[in-house]
Amino acid sequence: MKADVLSNGIASSNKIENKQKQKAHGQNGAHATMSPVAKRAKFENGDIQKSSKGSESLVSDTLEKRHRMIGRATEIHYPECPLYIEYGRGAFLYDANDKPFLDLMNNVAHVGHCHPKVTQASHNQIQQLNTNSRFLHDKIIKVAEKLKSTLPSKLSVCFFVNSGSEANDLAVQLARAYTKHYDVAVIDDAYHGHTLALMEISPYKFKRAGGLGQREFIHVLARPDSYRGDHQGNNDDPKIGEAYFKDAKRVLDQAVDNNRKIALCITESMMSCGGQIIYPAGYLKSLYDYTRSLGGICIADEVQVGIGRSGSKGFWGFQHQDVIPDVVTIGKPFGNGHPVSVVVTTEEIAQAWEDRKVPYFNTFGGNPVSMAIALSVLEVVEEEKLQENAEEVGNHCLQRLNVLKDKHQIIGDVRGFGLFIGIELSEDRVTKVPATEKANTVVYSLRNRGVLISRDGPDRNVLKIKPPMVINKKDIDFFIEQLDQVLTEL
Q1: Residue 291 has pLDDT above 50, yes or no
Q2: In a domain, 109, yes or no
Q3: What is residue 401's DSSP assignment?
Q4: SS3 content of the chain, % helix, strand, coil (to 5)
Q5: d(CA 158, CA 30)
Q6: CATH number for the domain including 434?
Q7: Does residue 112 contact residue 89 with C-beta atoms inside 8 Å?
C-alpha cells in the first residue's frame, strides 16, 4: 500500500514537472536539450527573439505587483532593468524567452541550479516525512556525521537552523552564554545577517545612513585590505598581517581599558560584502590568539565561503589562515537554494548553553526534508569533485583576469582563491580612487551580454565572482571575452 502511494506520487509529480519543462522550453521542447552555448549563439544570430512585447509586459506587470504587495525596501537585482527569471540549470539562469545568462553571482546554488540529485532528494523525502524537528529521525544524524568529517575534531556539536542570519544570531548567543561577557569585535564593513542583533554587529549595515549606528559594546577592527588599506603590499607578507593585527589589538586594548569584556570576535573567513577581501598572512591566527587571551571566543562565519568554494586552500575558508575557530556558522550553499543552515561548536560551549536550563528548539531547523537536501549537497560536492573544480577553474579565471589587468588600467587588483574572486576597479592605479560608477556600468553591460555579476565593497567598485561550483573553463572564457569588450568600450 505504502509503495503504491509513493509510486503514484512520483508519477504524478513527474507529470507536473514535465509540463513545467514544456512551459519553460516551448511546447515542442526544442530547446530543452540545447546547451547554453548553442542557445546563446541563437540569440546572437537573431534566431530567437531577444525580447518581445510580451516579455516586457511580464516584467513590468510583475514589478508593479511586487511594488504594491512586497516590502519596497526589499532589493532586486538590476533595478534599472530587472530580469524575469523562468528557470535555472547548472551555472545558468534563463529568462522567459529562454535566453541563457551565465550566473557569476549565485553562491547559493552551490552545486548548480536544480541539480538532479538535490531535487530528487527533496522530492523523495517530502513524500515520506517532513515534521517538527523535535521528533527523532536519522537524517539529522547523517548530516551531522558528514559535516563533522570535514571539520577539526573539536568542532563536534551541531545546532541546525534555517538561514545564515539565524546561525550567526545563535552563535553570538552561545558565545555570551559561555564567556559570560557581552562585547563583540568585528571587522569594518563586515556583514553577518539581518536580525536586530546581527545588524548591530554588522558595520556594512549599521554605518549606513539610516542605520543603527555603532553601539558601545561593538568594537570595530580595521578592514585588513592590503590593496587600499592603511597597510598595503603583498598579502603573503607576514608584516602586512602583523601590522593589521597590531591595529586590531589597539582597539581591543582600548575596550579593556574602558572596562569592557570581549565575548567574541566574529569574522567572515574571507570577506564577501566587504569587497572580496582575503586576509593577509597570519592575521586571523594572531587575532584569534589575542581574543582568547581576553576571555573571548572566535566565530568563523562561513555562510558565504564554505563547503569547498576556495579550492585546495581548504574545504572551509578559515583553513587558509591555519586557525581553528570555537564556533563555525554555515549557510547559503548548504541547501543549494533551500533554507538550511547550521552552527557547529565545541562540547564545552554547547554545555554552557545547556547549563542555563533554557531549552533550545527550532521548529524547522533540522527537519527531514532540509536534512535530505543538505546531505545530498555534501555528497555532490564530494562525488563530482567540486572542490577540485573550484581550484582548477578558479586558477584559470585568475590567470585570464591578470592578463586583462595588464591590458586595462581600470583593473586595479585581482584577488581570491578558488571560485571566490574579486576584481577591484580603480580610476587610477596610483591614487586607487574607486571607479564606482564605471563598476555599475560594467555590471549592466555584462548583464546585457548574458553575464550576471554583482559589485560590492564599501565603495561598490569590486566585481564579485562567486558562481555555482559546476562552472567550467569555457564559461569563464565567455565571461572574460565579454568583460574585455565591455572594458574596451568604457
Answers
A1: yes
A2: no
A3: H
A4: 45, 15, 40
A5: 46
A6: 3.90.1150.10
A7: yes
* Domain match, 1 and 94 both: no
pLDDT, tens only, 85-133: 999 999 999 999 999 999 999 999 999 999 999 999 999 999 999 988 7
Whether 468 shows a pLDDT value over 50: the answer reads: yes
d(CA 201, CA 203): 6
Grid cell for residue 130: 517532513
Give the chain's domain count.
3
Which residue spans within 76-145 are E strands per DSSP? 85-89, 92-95, 100-103
Q: How far apart, in Å, are the Cα atoms of 41 and each of 44, 446, 481?
A: 5, 16, 14
DSSP 450: T
Which DSSP string do the residues of 274-301 spell out, in sequence order? TTSBPPPTTHHHHHHHHHHHTT-EEEEE
Whole-structure pTM value: 0.89
Domain range for residue 272? Answer: 117-383
| pLDDT in the model for residue 359 | 85
pLDDT tens figures, 379-422: 999 999 999 999 999 999 999 999 999 999 999 999 999 999 99
d(CA 165, CA 156): 21
